[in-house]
Design goal:
The chain has 24 helices and 27 strands. The chain is globular, with a radius of gyration of 27 Å. Strand 24 and strand 25 form a beta hairpin. The longest helix has 17 residues. The protein is an alpha/beta fold.
């Protein structure tokens, strides 16, 4: 077996490890030694489906590594497997270039935080950053150097299942979360608790028509810049090391082949200096049978020329670019540039200095799912729950009571982690029933019944769960299961229903046309409400769902968002150890017919304010109000807050000056709790139509009973700018409405004139 080439280490020792010039010199030297096949190999990512530690060089990937035809692998798990692969790469290939190993570490590795949409509902940037750092620490200890996260796609249509994986509907909040995630994952790359982030999906994937995954996207560039681009740009400016292309078209051109998107916007306008990877098999899907824009040779060349550096799984670059080079369809300079960007990523991660940086089995054992990480996940998960209703103060519960815990999500270990949990270890996690039984101890009693099936259609449940690689929730006889549930409910003092979506009902490839509670669960819930007992609905979800009937019949409703510590975190909140503090980052509709629905809409010429009666020949619905059932920013807690009117430090502001908006918030209840104070701005007079309101600031505060605090926001010119019809980023003088409040619907207003 070959040792790592001596010139690699000699060069590193002679040149040093830190300066940009040293990286450039090293990579220039390495590129000069590489064959065309080896350069194309660095642009090729394979999925690791046949790895064994006994003879890795004899596997398909091992043989490709030895030949220099692989630069990255994904979906290999286990530090021993990854170390074995890395050993082949650095000791048995001609140049010993290390691999970069990637995985979808979306909301944690084994310690799992709420799914991203739930994590965003904390509005707690420090907690979000910590969650990313813990994920990086565990992944980095297990051989993973690169995560395909964060997903920052704006989504205003919850029929799209991947709303679960994003940060909601708002570009400002999405931008701040993107920055926190990048900082948490990457740090300065100095340690093996720093891994490379991959911003996805560039761009506009969350705007798929009718919420159907992989579907067409069509929008104006003006809307792109003003509503959708901001979180991608923020992530790039935060130093994201890589970007992933999206599955959709942009301006009728597949994103991976869209030079305007990848080069003009991403690199030239935003100065991105990392590398770009396609999403899974995108190049294959661009051929006949997919988008149908060419054959493997032509689409591979188009993607390279557009600015893509790495081909995920399709093997189009490694199989076809050499022929395109000979035909003059691509240049050696373009191949070298793509190869350079991949090599730079490996340098930044420290893999040339230590190929085994992320392959320490001792760290893997001591850090993975450790108590410190679980405690943090429990605290942050509790912050994410959004209390939507609490009529009659059903919550918090008394642990000394007899509780009937009912529903498909109550005692289901395989789904508790939520969607996108590839490294989950369900056997380690508590179900809600187990956590609640442990929490009440001998003081009370928890009775359990599944009560019903998850879905009406058994075949759909079986097909989709198998497709996502998870065990389906057991099927039961609905009549017998309901009788059992009603029986324990009659014995109980209070009923807690754990219902909604299981893990695989949201995420990639799980679009839905109906967002109500599935029929078997709804039938059971209706029967339970007829018992006239206090009921709490725990609505497990990966998207905004429709809870109109539930909100009319169930006194307490809380949205919950999965996670490995979800069971314990739920007990902390349900029994009042912690007051709920999550706030919605998505608008929850009355009906599917309202979709897409989002708070920062443009004005119409015939407006009907939300809540007003139907008007003929105006912009409204016959059956439903215009606005949401629960608005963006909304959430209750176990106390009450009172807001003063917003005041401004001055009524006029120069276009290069600043002003301060201040509001007083008082805890008028009897419990300590956290509140998210929100700042919204409306540009009243502009050259183009502007949204009715836009989030431009927020602060999460914690107040003791009787405590009052002033919260101030500095209004800067940057907060007032937008992209005009020429796509110039401008501030236009005029009147601006400044709004503060606990959510987008309940605000006080003041007018600021900008000169």
């Amino acid at each position: 077996m070959k040792k790592i080439p001596a010139y690699l280490f000699a060069f590193l020792l002679s040149q040093g490890m830190n300066a940009q010039t040293d990286m450039n010199s090293y990579i220039n030297d390495l590129l000069s030694k590489m064959t065309l096949e080896e350069k194309l190999g660095q642009l090729n990512q394979l999925t690791g489906d046949d790895i064994n530690t006994g003879a890795p060089s004899q596997t398909r990937i091992g043989k490709e590594l030895i030949a220099g035809r692989v630069g990255s692998v994904l979906n290999v798990q286990g530090v021993d497997k990854i170390r074995a692969l890395q050993k082949v790469a650095v000791e048995e290939s001609r140049l010993g270039i290390p691999l970069i190993v990637g995985l979808d570490v979306i909301h944690g590795y084994e310690t799992l935080f709420p799914i991203p949409i739930g994590l965003s509902c904390t509005w707690d940037l420090a907690a979000i950053k910590q969650s990313a750092h813990i994920a990086a620490t565990e992944a980095g200890a297990n051989g993973i150097a690169w995560t395909f996260s964060p997903m920052v796609d704006i989504c205003v249509d919850p029929r799209w299942g991947r709303q679960a994986e994003g940060n909601g509907e708002d570009p400002y909040l999405g931008s701040r979360i993107a920055e926190a995630m990048i900082e948490g994952y990457q740090g300065d790359y100095s340690g093996n608790d720093n891994i490379m982030a991959c911003v996805k999906h560039f761009a506009l994937y969350g705007a798929a028509e009718s919420g159907r995954d992989y579907n067409t996207v069509d929008m104006s560039r003006l809307r792109m810049y003003n509503q959708y681009f901001a979180p991608y740009k923020a992530a790039v400016e935060a130093g994201a090391g890589s970007v992933m292309t999206s599955f959709n078209i942009v301006d009728y051109v597949p994103a991976s082949a869209n030079r305007w998107l990848m080069t003009d916007v991403l690199r030239n306008q935003w100065k991105f200096d990392g590398f770009v990877v396609t999403d899974y098999a995108t190049i294959t899907e661009m051929q006949q049978g997919g988008w149908g824009v060419g054959n493997v040779k032509s689409v591979s060349a188009r993607c390279l020329k557009a600015g893509v550096d790495m081909d995920m799984v399709s093997q189009g670059f490694v199989s076809a670019l050499s022929q395109s080079l000979n035909e003059g369809k691509v240049t050696m300079q373009e191949i070298d540039q793509a190869c350079r960007r991949v090599l730079e990523a490996k340098w930044k991660l420290g893999l040339f200095a230590d190929p085994y940086k992320y392959c320490d089995s001792k760290r893997a054992k001591s850090l993975t799912y450790c108590k410190e990480h679980r405690d943090a996940a429990r605290r942050i998960t509790a912050e994410s729950f959004v209390l939507l209703r609490n009529e009659g103060n059903v919550l918090p519960l008394d642990k000394g009571k007899k509780i009937a815990l009912i529903g498909p999500m109550a005692h289901n270990r395989d789904d508790i982690a939520g969607t996108w949990s590839f490294s989950a270890k369900p056997d380690k996690y508590k179900t809600v029933y187990e956590a609640m039984t442990e929490y009440v101890g001998k003081k009370g009693k928890v009775l359990y019944a599944q009560g019903c099936n998850l879905l009406e259609d058994a075949q759909t449940q079986q097909t989709v769960s198998q497709g996502h690689g998870v065990k389906p929730i057991p099927r039961v006889n609905d009549e017998q299961a309901m009788a059992e549930a009603l029986g324990i409910a009659r014995e109980a003092d209070v009923i807690v229903c754990a219902m909604g979506e299981c893990a695989w009902m949201s995420g990639e490839g799980t679009s839905r046309t109906e967002l109500q509670l599935p029929a078997p669960q709804r039938r059971l819930l209706e029967k339970l409400t007829q018992l006239n007992k206090p009921i709490v609905l725990l609505n497990f979800a990966g998207r905004a769902t429709i809870l109109k009937w539930e909100s009319e019949h169930v006194p307490a409703i809380m949205n919950v968002w999965f996670g490995s510590e979800c069971g314990d975190a739920l007990c902390d909140v349900l029994f009042g150890e912690t007051s709920p503090s999550g706030r919605l980052t998505i608008s929850m509709p009355h009906a599917v017919g309202q979709l897409p629905l989002y708070y920062n809409q443009l004005q119409t010429g015939r407006p009907v304010p939300d809540g007003e009666p139907f008007r003929v020949f105006a912009s409204n619905y016959i059956e439903q109000p215009n606005g949401p059932l629960y608005p963006f920013g909304y959430g209750l807690t176990y106390t009450t807050f009172q807001y003063s009117n917003v005041t401004l430090s001055q009524n006029e502001m120069a276009s290069n000056g600043t002003a301060t908006a201040t509001v007083e918030v008082s805890n008028t209840g009897s419990r300590e709790a956290s509140e998210v104070v929100q700042l919204y701005i409306r540009d009243v007079e502009a050259s183009i139509s502007r949204p009715l309101m836009e989030l431009k600031g927020f602060e999460r505060i914690t107040l003791k009973p009787g405590e009052t605090r002033k919260v101030s926001f500095t209004i800067t010119p940057e907060l007032l700018k937008f992209y005009n019809s020429e796509l110039s980023y401008v501030l236009e003088p005029g009147d601006f409405t400044i709004m503060t409040g606990p959510d987008c619907k309940h605000v006080s207003k003041a007018t600021l004139k900008v000169r």
